[in-house]
Specification:
This protein is an alpha+beta fold and about 700 residues long. The protein contains 18 helices and 24 strands. It is about 30% helix and about 20% strand. The protein is globular and about 80 Å long.
Length: about 700
């Protein structure tokens, strides 16, 4: 049975109880996924799937936020897997539940199951006999394991999946109703702030609490090793108290950070664990007549979430309840249990949406901060809001990468060999995956836990620094090697796409360079090296929609980029139109995407548009800044992101394949858009930049050298 469930759905195999997914109450269908809403629209897509399989109107679907006491444990909401994993689990669970209710209705009504129909949850048969899910629910226990015995509907039988429905989470956000945790503060809530060093890895030597104790509204000061914070009656008081606490604090000297401008070379010189990711030998090796060797680099990137991280916590004896916008409530609970030395059952973690939350930002860290401060005020809820400086300095960053590619060309200029080498910190240190907690405050306590060194997920899970490093193209030979650093001067963890953005940028940039050197159209060159029809389709669709390639204009360039996310997920091709004058402006991005079944096409377009705009910001602006002692990009001034006035026009074509299982769209666009912009800049100016971000100053420097 478990083997059968594993084949149809990993999430259902791990959480086989039907009642953990679906329940019926008062005319509603209660759907409880383990994945969480972080702006990707899964609340709507999963509701569509459930409504389709159960034959109910979508207005009857009530989506329940993930919480550890009752929700299925689906790990972390990441990697563009929500619809792929949770959607498939809900689809099979609902198909089986539908069949269970049909059989029960047939027995009650005295007819065969195959003559019954279901309309909006009402089950009817010949002679006007009828019942409903809700009439039968009291007699049917769903506290049973799924069997995978019922087949979901075919794509032709679905009425909601494949259609663009209004997102269920949007109205609250548009009309300003409290939905985000940052907007929540129940009556009686206390407010906390945490004091942290501005210098990298500095230790708290002395803490003078005298000034802070004079702040009106102060409830408690918490000091445990390098961890210090305040709890107050109001946010204003908390801010005043932590400012006073800072004035009375003395810190040790900092750890040395690398030279920011020499970061790529620094990465290549550090101790590392080396792994051959993939190797392929040519069946009939061609002689290499010429070698092209290029190095590409991306800097550390901040999540830059629009609202800084926030959490609430409350203690009752040795029971703690935490509200968080973490992407993994069960994983966070595991780390909290380690820190507080409590059984997991003593900890409840409930998800609330966060404003601009994605990736491993500070959401999990601030949850521990809130729990530590709340322990000083038993029975009272404590809300902790990080500052902008906290978020930009102390949350994990996306790892910097140095990538070297060497292409061997034969006498005809064709690719005969390909070598791809990566140097990078690990790309994940999420909670709940190790024997020691990875939360920030855990390493600051008087009895500290070790500061975690980030790791890479295995290639079978999509990889980390090596993600999308194995070419999708039909090259005769290649060798892919990754060097994961075992030192970590700044915290790194999961940022959207992990290593895929950097690797796709490198691969697609060098392919473009080879095509241009050959005098061959970059689109035609790519198509010539691809046999996979879905790969070819997205490239051709993007090129066709963008009218590739328009008449040349001064200062205007066009570039293309392509990738299949994680080599197993969504296919995406992007064409960028870039204008270079006083600055660099991306005028238009045209994308084509294939996610298999597009459950909610508008939702897919939302995700591709969002990824494309974020990638544009990464390419043109984003770079964590630091000197040898501290992070210096602690505000929007030092860490600029794309402004609304700079957002390009984005056009997306969805190639829907309803007969193919869906995959996620959230991270498919970043790599192709990055490469397309870089290639378009070259097309405009004839100068190729291989380090991100691509800025005016870097372009001028490159042009002076060319």
């Amino acid at each position: 049975m478990e083997h059968e469930l594993q084949k149809v759905s990993v999430s259902l195999a791990v959480n086989p109880k039907l009642s953990s997914w679906i329940n019926f109450a008062e005319g509603k269908v209660i759907v409880s996924p383990g994945k969480v809403e972080i702006g990707q629209g899964i609340v709507t897509a999963l509701a569509q799937i459930a409504a389709d399989e159960l034959d109910v109107d979508i207005s009857r679907i009530e989506m329940v936020r993930a919480a550890t006491p009752a929700s299925p444990n689906e790990g972390v909401t990441s990697g563009s897997l929500s619809v792929q994993h949770s959607g498939r689990a809900i689809r099979f669970a609902c198909a089986e539940i539908r069949q269970i209710f049909l059989n029960a209705a047939a027995e009650r009504l005295g007819v065969a199951p195959d003559v019954l129909t279901i309309t909006d949850g009402n089950i009817a048969g010949p002679g006007n006999v009828s019942t409903s899910y809700w009439e039968l629910a009291g007699d049917i226990s769903l506290d049973r394991d799924a069997t995978a015995g019922a087949q979901p509907k075919s794509s032709a039988q679905r009425t909601l999946a494949g259609h663009s429905l209004q997102r269920l989470d949007i109205p609250d956000k548009v009309f300003g109703r409290p939905r985000f945790i940052q907007d929540s503060a129940p009556p009686g809530t206390l407010h906390g702030r945490v004091l942290r060093a501005e210098l990298a890895l500095a230790r708290l030597i002395e803490l003078n609490e005298e000034r802070a104790r004079k702040v009106e509204g102060l409830v408690a000061i918490v000091h445990d090793g390098n961890f210090a914070g305040v709890v107050c009656e109001t946010e204003a008081a908390a801010e005043a108290a932590v400012t006073a606490l800072r004035k009375g604090a003395k810190w040790s000297s900092s750890a040395a950070l690398p030279d920011e401008d020499g970061l790529a070379e620094w990465l290549k010189q550090q101790p590392a664990v080396s792994t051959v990711i993939a190797s392929k030998n040519a069946t009939a090796p061609a002689a290499v007549a010429r070698t092209i060797k290029r190095q590409y680099h991306r800097p550390y990137i901040a999540h830059g979430s629009i609202a800084p991280s926030c959490a609430m916590a409350q203690w009752d004896g040795d029971i703690v309840r935490v509200w968080t916008h973490s992407q993994g409530v069960y994983n966070l609970r595991s780390d909290l249990a380690l820190v507080f030395k409590l059984p997991r059952e003593n900890i409840t973690v409930e998800h609330m949406e966060g404003a601009g939350c994605y990736g491993h930002n500070g959401a999990d860290d601030v949850a521990l901060d809130a729990a530590l401060l709340a322990k000083a005020t038993p029975g009272r809820t404590v809300r902790v809001q990080w500052s902008r400086a906290d978020e930009m300095s102390h949350a994990p960053f996306g790892a910097a990468m140095a990538i070297e590619i060497e292409a061997g060309l034969d006498s005809d200029g064709e690719i005969a060999s390909w070598r791809h080498t990566i140097w990078s910190n690990g790309h994940t240190a999420r909670p709940g995956r190790a024997e020691q907690p990875t939360l920030l405050a855990a390493s600051e306590l008087a009895a500290p836990f070790p500061r975690a060194i980030s790791l890479d997920p295995p290639p079978a899970s999509g990889g980390g620094s090596d993600r999308n490093s194995v070419p999708l193209y039909d090259f005769p030979a290649w060798n892919i090697e990754a060097h994961r650093l075992t030192v970590m001067p700044v915290r790194t963890s999961a940022l959207r796409t992990l290593g895929a953005q950097g690797n796709t940028f490198a691969i697609e940039s060098l392919l473009d360079e080879i095509a241009v050197d050959r005098g061959e159209d970059p689109v035609a060159f790519r198509l010539r090296h691809l046999t996979d029809p879905r790969s070819r389709d997205v490239i051709q669709a993007a090129a066709r929609r963008a009218n590739w390639k328009p008449v040349k204009q001064d200062g205007v360039g066009y570039g293309i980029g392509f990738s299949r996310y994680k080599t197993t997920g969504a296919y995406c091709a992007a064409v960028a139109e870039v204008e270079v004058g006083e600055g660099i402006r991306v005028r238009k991005l045209t994308l084509a995407v294939d996610v298999g079944e597009a459950v909610n096409p508008d939702g897919v377009i939302n995700q591709i548009e969002g990824g494309a705009i974020q990638a544009t910001s990464w390419v043109l602006k984003e770079r964590v800044r630091f000197d040898r002692t501290r992070i210096t990009s602690s505000s929007w001034t030092e860490y600029p992101i794309l402004r609304f006035s700079e957002v390009p026009e984005v056009e997306v074509e969805v190639i829907s394949r309803p007969e193919i299982d869906p995959v996620g769209a959230g991270e498919a666009a970043h790599g192709p858009v990055t490469a397309a912009i870089a290639n378009a800049v070259f097309d405009a100016l004839g100068v190729r930049l291989r380090s991100l971000p691509i800025t005016r100053d870097r372009l001028i420097a490159a042009m002076e050298l060319s």
